Amino acid sequence: MQSHAYHCNQMKMTLSRAEYKEIVRWTDQLRPTRQCMKTLKERFPNHSQSTLLSIFSLEYQKRTKRTFSRHHAPEVIDGHYQRYLSGAKAHPAAPVLLELANKADLSPALMARIILERFLQGPEGEMPSKTVLNSMLKEPSLIPDPILAKNIYQCTINDCCYGPLVDCIKHAIGQEHEVLLCDKLKERNLSFLDENQLRVMGYDKTPDIILEVPIAVEGHIVHWIESKASFGDDHSHRTYLNEQFWSYWNRFGPGLVIYWYGFIEELDCQRDRGILLKDGFPADIVLCHAAQQNGPPHQPQ
Amino acid sequence: MAALLESLLCKKVDIKTVLEWLKNDEEGERLAFSEPQVSVHKQEFVPFLLNFLREQSSRALTHGPATPAKTPNRLRPGAQGCRSAAGAAAGSRSASRVQLFSPSPSVSPGSEWDAASHSLSGVNPFSSPSFATGWSPASRPSGHERRSGQKVSLGDYMVSPPDLQKSPSIQSQKSRRRSGGNMALGGQGKHGGWRQAHHSDEIGRRPSRGGGNSRISEQVSPPSVGQLNLNNLEDFPPVGSSPISPAASKPSRRINPTPVSEERAHSKPKTCFTSIPFTESSSPSLAVDALEGPLTVGSPLSLQEERELLKKEKTKRAQQVSSPLLSSLDPCTPTKSGLGAGSKVTPELQTPCPEPSKVTFSSELDLLAELYCTCISENLVPNIFLELFFVVQLLTSQSAHTHDDDERESLCSVNSEIMERCYLRRVHNCVYFAVKVLQNQFQLVAHLDKCTLRLLAENERVASFSPALRDRLTEAQGGSTAQHSPSVSTFIHSVPFQPATDNQSNFCSTHAFHIFKKQRDIFYEVLREWEDFHKEQGWNFDAALGRRIRGIMSQLTSAGNHSHFARLFLKQLIQVCKGPGVNSSPGETPDADLLGMLGADSLGRLKRLEERLIQPQGVVGPCPPPSFPGHQEFFRDFLQAASCCHLNQHLQDSLCQQLLQLDEVSILSPPASVAGVDEEGDGDMEQQDEKQRFTSVLLLARLLAKFLGFISFLPYQTSERPSREIRDAAVALRSKSVPVLDVCAVLSNSMKRRRTILTVPWLVEFLSMMDFVGPLLLCYRTALGKLLLLYRRMLLGRCGEMCYLNKLLTVSVLGWLFQIPVIPEDIFFTNEFTEVAKLEDSSTSAAGLDCIPLVDQQLLYTCCPFLGEFRKLLAAFVSGSSAKSGGIIRKITPTSAELKDAPTANRSQQKLQVDLEQAFFHNQPPSLRRTVEFVAERVGSNAVKHMKATLVSELVERGEKMLRDGLASPNSNPSKLNDSICAQLCVAGLEAMAKATRFCSEKSPEAIRILLSDETSPAVRTTSENITKRLATEKACSWLSANITALIRREWKSRYDRVMKTAAGPPPPHSRLDVEAAAPEPPTKEEPSAAPKTRRGSERVTSCPPHCSHGASLPSDVLIEMKEWLSIAVGPRTNDELLTGSQAKALLQRVADTLACRKFSTATSEQMLLNSTVLLACRLVSAELPVLSPSEGDGDVAGSGSEPPVRALLEQLAALWQADGCSSAPLHLLFAQLTVSAVLKASDAEWKNYLFLVRKLVDGQVLSEEEVISHWRKLTNLALPAKLVENFQLQSQSIKPPLPLAELQSQLDVLQVSQQAVEGAT
């Protein structure tokens, strides 16, 4: 069962806050496009692409949240729409909408959404249903206006932070890492309950994994493991702590969080209080009584 | 009173009579002795005696046991030394001489001032509890008792420096954060200097200035007191000038010295006094007492009479003032030179070395000691440890001594007033007296911890005054079980979520369930914040957390979730605070994190280090106030901040239930055979288990009881003792409602069933939380009375059915209770409380817990941490005297900070394993732990029994054979033979451990397997088995390693004796030689490896092809690449971004692989991937996405439609869609308007490619021709060029039966027309 989990592990995963800040500073002016990502990677060749993308994505989301209201005022939307219309009319083959988004420093996928929403708006200003909107974003061929469809697709496919495909990728990444985690646990012959089983049992908060028999990692007891297929920055870690990790501690005791794409080193400061951070599956595992070694041998799948 | 003592000292009364009288509790309380024709109450005589001793020694103790190292100036004892302490205050002959303790407030620093005032008023400043006597002159009413019209006495200054009495709460609240300063004053004001350390909670935290010197040196702020007129008789009535007539005396009572802070009950009751329970109540205070009603019940005199007496007394003293001796004061120490920080004075040089030869009044001292010891032995004193503490203080007293002492001595002897002789004025006498008492009370002393015993044994004074005592002490050290710190796991945990009680079905609604989910998290958030910040300066619990806590409460109320929260709260409380790890002496609680880091093996070292650090630190005395150490503080503050009656009610219910359950817990008495075993010994294994169980039950019960008491009395807590009117009203009111716990019934029941050793300690905790009115309510008054009777009856020296340490614990906790502030001062020496109480006789049949040796020294010290004060006192003395003899004062730099930084790697594996075990149980149902512990205990015990039955008996048989063989040989020496055989057997016996280990390894898993349910997961079961194995083995081996040798010896001895006895007779047949000859069981085989691994977790619906190695790229990775490629296709792009044909081919291959291996895929990712392939195909056929042919150089776009690369890719795609599970590919996109129009716009090559692809799909049966046609048909507004159709048709015809072309053709016109429209539009 060779794995690709560590395809990026040769790269530096955990960053000091200073390193992290430098990357963040550098991403400040970037747009979420393929080209920008390329320059970012070239600038920081020692860091894994996933880590860089994750950091940028998180930063970009923060940026978007900050500026979101600016772009969502009806008059602003109207302005964007009119500019698109005139642009598309003048240059039907040009990536009008994408350029518009970059000019406005708005995520292309979000721009596409805004414009499509505006396009679909009824004569009385009634909003299209979310389902219709989403399905059209997902499959632009459903959009009655072929030029708009082309522009919309161009926006969503070029955006590396938002859009249906990005969402799908993020979801897939999360899913894959959970599977990888389970694999690793099985490899070590560690018995565990997963989220779904826990939910069935009526647990009110459920980490990805609860170990049936706790282990010790680097001298710290671990009852549960949460897999995060993203970079652990201050903001997301704080949110996770408050909404998830401490809640797990409160119910199941100390545990381990794996930020597969690394984290800011300084955040790993709650070890003694029961939250341990790692950027991969830990190597230094102490078993309770080496119980599993005496247990039934691992069954190959 | 005095008369009796006087008569005794004059030998006018036979000591034996008095002793008999003291001992006999049946006969009347009164002793009538001939001389002055008065009768004496026992209740009055005892306090008189105690106070007499305190006053006698007050001078010797002024420097305090606190530290000999810090008597910086020679005390210039004047001739007044022969007078009582008050006299001393009045007289040095030389004004130039420097006296350390002076009553002049203007110059003296606080502590000295304090000390001086004490000596003036006859109160020992350093803790010696002082008991009131009628003739004690200085009054010391506490601030709020004082009536405005009353004259100020020196005692008042001592008790109530203005800011202290008025706002004691400030200091108690802030005390933690401040060091020294006013705080010190607060402590000393009441109790004498050194004791403040306790209140300030600062032990170990205060900066240590010059070692032991720090204690006093910090108490620098002198109370601001107005100028005193020393000649004012009301302020400074001479002491002891003439005893008041015995009739005037009344039972002493403590002046209420408890400036209970406003928050006392709620926050830290730190300001409480320690060991001055009975300050003098002298004439002026009698008046006060009289006004106070019930408190003076015992007073035989009317107020008027007392006033008369007082007057007489004053006149008498007025005459004495003229005495030249009293005319001048010793000049006070102008500065506290030598006390300041860092100064290394060695005043010990002036401290005389006590010598037995210099003892004066030895016969009187003997007599006093005998009286005193009888009081102690007969439990006539309220707290025996307080007395013992006083004695140790005497032993370590450091009275400065000069040659003037000799002069004084002569004066002393000249003095005819027998009561005024300075029996304990000189250190020689003090030590002599102390050693006498220690000798007499040896049994009690011998039960102190090893360290204390060692310090006592090594004390040079003990050695020089009584080598015999020293020897006995040395010997006793061996008997004293080492007080090792229990290896408590420092594993602090949350309360585990248990589906059985915590999941949604346990809540009345989903809403309530989710509310509680949040409340639980907030609770821990608050707890964590408290842990982080509560020690920080300026942090205030209520300000920081109050709002959030009240938020929890209101949410709970709205959801009706209080019962859930109460359970969580209590479980967390128990989780964190239970166990001996929680030291109830503040400042000594080891930092849990630190211990956790150091691990088990460093624990011992740390403990020792800690002890050394603590030793020279403040001695707090044997009566610390009730406190909430460690995390208990959080829970207390939480309840206060919450002030939620709902929650409190739920907690009360739950606490009551749990407590009563615990109180009923059955502890097995040891089997009869072991009963004979030495009480101090380790006892049988079962006995140890029961002891352990008892310990844990007792500690838990004490914790719960304290909180039950806290919650129950919380509504009534007041910062100050309420006035009499308020109190009476409150009593009347509250006596109508039912108390939360029927303490009397619990107590009676417990006494009847002889379970007081369990009940009393927790009842004491409960009662210690009472408010001021509480003790006056009938139910609690009765309970207190009962406890008092119980205390008096529980004589340590008498052999009873109750074991010594059991008794000692009971007596110790009761003694402590009687000293805490809320308990009325007069409880001990009046009958008021005992009148209402009655002691039930225990039912004769049942042999209750009291008769089982359950308490060991460790438990005693855990429950009564203040017993460690002896050690501190002695250690302080050692550090002082070593300095004297040129030694080095141990300067110990606290190193905890460094230790804290020690890498976690230091944490030993062993500790980690223990933690892992604890952690394992944490999230399992509690029954699992119970099962494992039970099985382990049984298996361990069985292993021992098995060893006894097999190995030991076999060894003994073997020994017998050897013995007989040996005896048969000529010149045999039975005794030598015996020794050698015994030695051999003992060596062989060591095998027992290995055998027991095997036994446990074999038996434990079997039992566990049977007891756990079949549904238990294999991992859990295996772990449980292993833990059981370990526990059982540990239990068995630890017992065996400690006892196997003794066991073999014993067995062998009896066998030897028997053989020797019968040796003369006929040799006995080798009857039982072939016993289960310890053929050891074959080593346990490892677990049957059967148990198929049922993976309940992580089962995913995967349907990879057989033998799939899951080596394909992750869906996300492929998706990312496809997205990239697509975005290049859609543009904008640069040409160098384009893929070559081979790159594209490789990518598509990976996509195909990924789609085939479904291990990591989800429905969405799979669908998205398929979508992307179709979209890619669309771009390829329309040549919107050119593909570089491998031959072509960079940059140049290949002939866009050039067949080879694109065709190959299209073929690849078609094959991909043909694969299993790819049926959901959105192939309709190939026929979408955008695609077709793009193809139409492109060149012929694209047309061909497009048709090629469609044909492939049809051929591959991915699509039927009908589907293709119907897709095209939908393109109603798009022209389908004839060429396309033709081509398609041609292809079809060549391979397939003809399409319904006619139909297509019929539409052609329409389509062509509309195509123009489309072209126009684009």
Automatic annotation (TrEMBL), chain A:
Top-level taxon of the source organism: Eukaryota
Would the keyword Cytoplasm be found if you checked this record's keyword annotation?
yes
Q: State the Gene Ontology BP annotations.
A: erythrocyte differentiation
Write one Pfam family the protein is assigned to.
TPD
Q: What is its main location?
A: cytoplasm
Task: Fetch the InterPro entries from UniProt.
Answer: CDIN1
The entry's protein name is CDAN1-interacting nuclease 1
UniProtKB/TrEMBL annotation, chain B:
Cellular component GO terms held in the UniProt record: nucleus
The Low complexity compositionally biased stretches are 78-97, 241-250
Tell me the ranges covered by the Codanin-1 C-terminal domain, including all copies: 850-964
Pfam families in alphabetical order:
Codanin-1_C
Q: Where is the composition biased (Polar residues)?
A: 99-109, 218-232
Ranges for region Disordered: 61-117, 130-276, 1061-1109
Q: Which InterPro entries match?
A: Codanin-1, Codanin-1_C
Look up the record and give one Gene Ontology term from the biological process aspect: chromatin organization
| UniProt name for this protein | Codanin-1 C-terminal domain-containing protein
